[in-house]
Amino acid sequence: MSLRVAARIARRELRGGLRGFRVFLACLALGVAAIAAVGSVRAAIEAGLARDGAVLLGGDAEMSFTYRFADEAERAWMDQNADAISEVVDFRSMAVVGAGDDEERALTQVKGVDGAWPIYGTAELSPDMPLDEALSDVDGQPGGVMQRVLAERLGLETGDAFRLGTQTFRLTALLEREPDDAGDGFGLGPRTLVRTEALANSSLLEPGTLFETRYRLKVPQSTDLEAMRADAQQRFRDAGMRWRDSRNGAPGIAAFVDRLGAFLVLVGLAGLAVGGVGVSAAVRAYLEGKREVIAVLKTLGAGTRTIFAAYLMQIGALSILGIALGLALGAVLPLLLAPFIAGSLPLSAEFGIYPGPLAEAAIYGGLTALLFTLWPLARIEEVRAASLFRDAVSGTRRLPRPAYLAATALLAVALVGCAVWLSGMATLALYVAAGLVGSLALLTMAAQGVRHLARRAARAQVVRGRSALRLALGAVGGPGGEATSVVLSLGLGLTVLAAVGQIDANLRSAIDRDLPEVAPSYFVVDIQPDQLEGFLTRVETDPGVSRVETAPMLRGIITRINGQPAREAVGEHWVLNGDRGVTYSAQPTARTTVTAGEWWPEDYAGTPQVSFAAEEAEEMGLQLGDEITVNILGRDITAEITSFREVDFSTAGIGFILSMNPSALAGAPHSHIATIYAAPEAEAALLRDLARAYPNITAIRVRDAIDRVSEVLSGIAAAITYGAMATLATGIVVLIGAAAAGERVRIFESAVLKTVGAVRSQILGYFAIRSALLGGAAGLVAIFCGGLAGWAVTTFVMETDYVFEPVSALMIVAGGVAATLIAGLAFAWRPLAARPASVLRARE
C-alpha cells in the first residue's frame, strides 16, 4: 500500500468540494457543539465558584453548629486563627403583619447578623443605604430588611412594622442581593435580615429550638486552609462542628452544576449518536456514488488498502473540519448567550474559552466519526471491482470481515469508556450507553418491521383503488427505501424527548397523586415543652383535623461506632454527613414497626439504648448490640442498638433515624415538632390561632415546600429538555439529508408516474403519505423506546410508580409526522416540476 498515492487520490477527490458531505459535517458539528457548549458553561460556572468562593461563602472559612452557639474553646480557636469573625444565625420563622382578623403571615428564612457581616461583598438594598443604618434601632424598634417577594406577599412598604416571634421590627429597605446567599443552601422561604441581638426578646432562639450558627472567618492570605481544616476537625468535629472553606464556597451549587452538566453531556452523546447515523448514511451514499471511480482505480492497479486509505484520509480530513466547526460553535455559543445564562444563575460565571471541555468534545466527535464511518468503508474495501457494478443493480449487502467488526467493537468500547471516565458518573454513563445501544437495536428492528408491514399492507384488498396510499406503502416497504435511515435518525431524537417527557410527567404526577393522600398539611417546629399541652388541646379539638403527631426533637452527630470513628467503621454514608434528628420515646408509637430486637421497658433508666432505622442500618452494616456514640449539644452519648424499625421518609411525616430511651436524654434542652393533617378549609383558622397563641413556633405548609422542590425539578427537566432538543435537531438534519439524497429517485418516480397518467396532486399526495408514514412509524417507535426508558428511570432511580402519559406521547407522534412531512415536501418541488421526457431520455 502506498500512502503517498492514497494521499494524492484523497486530495484530488477533495477538490470536488463538499457536495455530498454537508449532512456529514452538520451532524458531526452539531453533536460536538452541544457537548462543547455544555462543558464550557459548566467550566464557566466552576471558574466563577473558584474565583468568588470567599464571597459566596461569606469568608475564607466557615465553622457551623446546629442548636447552639460556639463555646469558649471554639471561639478562642477562631480568635487565634482568624483576623476577623462574623457570627450568623440562620433559621426559619413566620413573618407576621397586622392583628386580629387582618393578620397576615408568611414563612421566611431569617438571618441574624452581627456588625462584622458581610466580611466580603456588599448587601444591596433598595433604597440604597448602609446596612448598619438599615438594621439600627429607631425609638427602641430594630430595623429589618426582607426580599421584595416577601414584602409584596405581606403588603409591606418601607416604614411598616412586622413581627418575628414576639419581637416587632420596622421594614427599612428591600434586600435586593445578599453576597453569601449562594453559600447558604436551600431555603423554603424568602430572606429576612436582622441583627442577632435584636432577636434576644423574640422567643425564637430559646434552648432546644432549631437554628444554625455559622462563623465566617477572614484569615491571612498565607494561611494553609487544608491544614486549618484538619486542625479544626480534629479538635471540634466530634462536638458537632461542620467545616467549609472558600475552595468550595457553595458546595450545593457546585455539586448540582457538576451532576447536571455531566448528565447533559450524556444527553449530548445521544445527539452525537444520532449524528453518527447521519455520518454513516452520508459516507455510504457518497461511496455509492463513487463506485465507478473505485472500479476504475482497481482496474488501473490500485490495491484495496490504498483505496481504503484514500477514502479514510478524505473522510478523516472532513471529520476534522466538522469537529473544528462544532468546537468553534460550542465555544462561541456560551459567550453569545452569557447575558441570558448569567441572569438565571445565583452567582457570576466566568465565561471564556476553556480547552478542557473542547478537548473532551473533540475526543467524543473523533471517536464517533471513526466508529460510524469504519463500517461502510470496510464494506467497500472487501468488494471486487466487477461486483461493484453488479451491486449497483442487485443491492446485495454483506457484513465486513471480522477484523473490521472487531475494530468497530473496540471503538464503541473506547467511546463508552471515555463517557464513563470524563463524565464522572460511571453508572449513569453505562446506563445511557446501554440505552443508546438498545434503542438503536430496537429502532433498526422496528425499521425492518415497518418495511415488512408496509409490503403486506400494499397488497391488501383495502388499499386497492387508493393509488397514492398504495404507492407510498410500496415505497416504504421496497428495497433501497428511506425507512431505516428515517426511523433511526428521527426515532432516536424523538426517543430522548419521549423519555424526558415521560419522566417529567411521572415526577409531577407522583407529587400530585401520591403525596396529598399521605402528606400532612403543616409541619410545625420549635414547640416548647411548656407549650405542648395547649398546642395539642387546640389542634385535637378542631373537627377539621384528622390526625396530629408530635415528637420531641434534638439534633446530634454520630461520631463513633463500636469505639471507632464512624467513617472508619462503616465508610461514607449520608447518615454520617452532618447532624441528624434524634428523638426519644418510652414506648413505640402505634405507627412504629419494630423489625428486629426489642424496645426498652417503659420505665427503663439504665445505660442508654437506641432504636435505629432498619434500612439505613442495613446499608451501614449495623447489627443488634453495636454501640454508637452521638454528640448532642456538645455531649457524647454512647448507646447500644437494641432494635431496628421501619422509617418511611416518603410520607413527609415525622421520621427519625435515631430514637433513644427518655432517660438517655434527660435534661437536654429541646423542643417538639408536630405534623398536622387537616382539611383544607380548616388550615387558615388553625394557623391563625396557633400563631397568635405561640408566636415562636414555625408552621411550614407542606404543599408550599413540595412546590418549592417542584420548581427546582422543573428547572432540571427544562435543562434536560433543551439538551434533548439538540439531539432532535441533529435528527432533523439527518432527515433532511435523507430527503435530499432521495431527490434523484423521486424525480425518476415522478417522471414515470406522469408518463402513466398521474397528475401533480396525486404525486404530491403519494410523497406526503410516504413521509407521514415514516414519521408516524418513527414517532411510534420513539414512544415505545422512550416509554421503556421512562419506566426504568421512574421505577429504579426515582423509586415511584410509573404511569404512561399519553399527551406527550401524542405530541411526539405529531412531531415526527410534521418533521418528515416538511422535510419530504421541501424536496418534492423539483421532482414535480421535472419533465418526463428529459428525465427518461437521460436514463437511456
UniProtKB/TrEMBL annotation:
Lineage in the entry? Bacteria, Pseudomonadati, Pseudomonadota, Alphaproteobacteria, Rhodobacterales
Which keywords fit this entry according to its UniProt record?
Answer: Cell membrane, Membrane, Transmembrane, Transmembrane helix
Claim: Transmembrane is one of the keywords in the record: yes
User: Mind telling me what this protein is named?
Assistant: Putative ABC transport system permease protein
Q: Give the record's membrane topology.
A: Multi-pass membrane protein
Q: Which PANTHER family match?
A: INNER MEMBRANE PROTEIN (PTHR30287:SF1), MEMBRANE COMPONENT OF PREDICTED ABC SUPERFAMILY METABOLITE UPTAKE TRANSPORTER (PTHR30287)
**GO CC, one annotated term:** plasma membrane
Q: Does the keyword Transmembrane apply?
A: yes
Q: Which domain of life is it from?
A: Bacteria
The membrane spanning regions, by residue number, are: 260-287, 308-341, 361-380, 401-422, 428-450, 471-500, 716-742, 763-789, 809-829
Q: Which Pfam families match?
A: FtsX (PF02687)
Q: Where is the ABC3 transporter permease C-terminal domain?
A: 267-380, 728-831
Q: Where in the cell is it found?
A: Cell membrane
Q: Report the principal subcellular site.
A: membrane
